[in-house]
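Example 5.3 — RecA/RadA recombinase
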Amino acid sequence: MDTGYAALSAQLPGGGWPIGTLIELLVAHPGIGEMRLLRPALAAPSTRSIALVQPPHVPHAHAYAYFGIDLARPLWIRTAKSADALWSAEQILRTGSCSALVLWQNHIRAESLRRLLLAAQSAETLFFVMRPLASAPDASPATLRLGIRSVKDGISVELIKRKGPAPAEPLWLPMLPSPILLSPHRRAREQADVAPATPEELAREAS
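Solution (predicted C-alpha cells):
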C-alpha cells in the first residue's frame, strides 16, 4: 500500500507498506508525527474498520475527521491488561475484520510478536505495532522496522530493518501541522498528534 510519501515508498520493498505482515514503528516519544505518517494509508477508501488498540491518548474525533477518515471506521480498544490487548489484536488479525490495526505496546516479548506476525499473515490487514525507540536493539520478527524521531518541520525516519540494505542516512519527511492545532478543543500539547478529549467532546465531534 502506498505510504503517501514518495521518498519513503521508494525505499520500501514493493513500493509501500506491506500488507498481511508485522510493521514496527519505534518512536522516540508519542505524538511526534507517527499518526500523521500513517494518515494516507488509514484514510484509504475501505468499508472495514480501523482498530486502535491501547493508544496512549484518547482518540480525538476532530483529528481523524481532519485526516479524512470516516468517523464510523475507528474502533478504539482499551484493556486493563497488556495480555488482553495482545489477545484482542490477534483476534482482529485472524478474523480480518479491519483494514488496518495499530497496536501500542511499551513492552512485548518476541514470542508475542511472532504470534501476531503469524496471525497477520492470515489476513489482508495493514498492521503496525508502536513501540519505544529504545526497543530498536531488541530482536524482532517484524518484516519492517522504522525508527521515528522529531526534527524541524517533520520527522526523521530510519529504516532499521527491511529486505535489502538500509539507506546510509535517515529520511526526512515533512509533516502537515497537527490537526489539534486547528481544534477548538486544543490543549497546550505542541507536539501531540492526538490530544485527550472528554467523552462529551468526542460525542460532539462525531455528531
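Remark. Strands lie at 23-27, 49-53, 74-77, 98-104, 126-132, 144-151, 154-161, 171-174.
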